[in-house]
Amino acid sequence: MDYDTIIQLTVEKLPELFGDGLKVSEIHGGGSDRHYFRIGNDFLKLIFCRYGVEKKENSLFADHSDFLGEHGVRVPRVLAQDQENRCLWVEDLGGEDLWSYRDSDWISVRRPLYQAALLEVGKLHSVTERLISHLPVLNPPFNVDLYRWEFEYFMDNFVNRLSAATIDEIRPVRESAELKHLRLELSAQPRCLVHRDLQSQNVLIWKGMPALIDFQGMRYGLPEYDVASLIFDPYVVMSKEEREDLIRFLESRSNNADFRGQLLRCAVQRLMQVLGAYGFLGLVKKKSAFLKFIPRGLENLHHVAVEQGVMPVLEPMLSLRDDRFLKVLIS
């Protein structure tokens, strides 16, 4: 969509806020079929989003934003929506996210921001399947089928495309009892609402406080899946000591006696999904910037699955076909 059309739609949709003198700039990045622009004048700015039809969840953002806001979760307000043209106008909470602070001091800056972000998403986790009947339309919940889909996504887009594992090594892993047990065990736990993609670029920092974005994938699942998404996020270098700091912070607040074990199991599941996404976005969608995060994602998955003993059966798959990977990365 060109800038003139964006300005025209904005003036038509929000005449009380904007008149002449609007300027538009595109916000680059991301792996979705959503396109973001900052639009405004010298006095007021907001975010304009044009979403595609690739994922039905895109159309859920406005309702999810309203619901989360009503339940005290800090999110940007949706000011207007045009479903026919697949457009949203959203409150502008600035350009800083948790990822922006990746090089800041841990004790004085990063740790309090991560703790605040985890407490913020904890408000979402307080909504369980038993508590609320009036909900916006949600995505299908995490269950055996969705966990299996994430594993197959990992197999198709990372293992088959980039892993050094041989066919003989892959075959027994695909049907292993350990992975089937993982899916069954995670599916048997009580569920709550989860963000689904809680990584450092989906937590804005506005006036020193976290605000969640890109929550249109919200569904019922395990809170530890969100926690694992953030503290094992391959976009950010986090030392084992820093990660342990956050685990202890949450462990002391959790009612789950097996919080740490469930967190590590969720980390295996989440990191498989992430590596599948990086392979798909980098190779199929030709967004090569995602490929550079694969080594760190592999390192995190190896640490949890093999070093921590959560899913050692995955070890043969957790190495790169170096010549292929470097070739695509360079191109």
Automatic annotation (TrEMBL):
Cross-referenced Pfam families: APH
Instruction: Enumerate the InterPro entries for this protein.
Output: Aminoglycoside_PTrfase (IPR002575), Kinase-like_dom_sf (IPR011009)
| Enzyme Commission number(s) from the entry | 2.7.1.-
One function term, GO molecular function aspect: kinase activity
Under Gene3D superfamilies, the record lists: 3.90.1200.10, Phosphorylase Kinase, domain 1 (3.30.200.20)
Residues forming the Aminoglycoside phosphotransferase domain are 24-233
Q: What class of enzyme is it?
A: transferase
Which keywords has UniProt assigned to this entry?
Kinase, Transferase
Keyword Protein biosynthesis found: no
Q: What is this protein called?
A: N-acetylmuramate/N-acetylglucosamine kinase
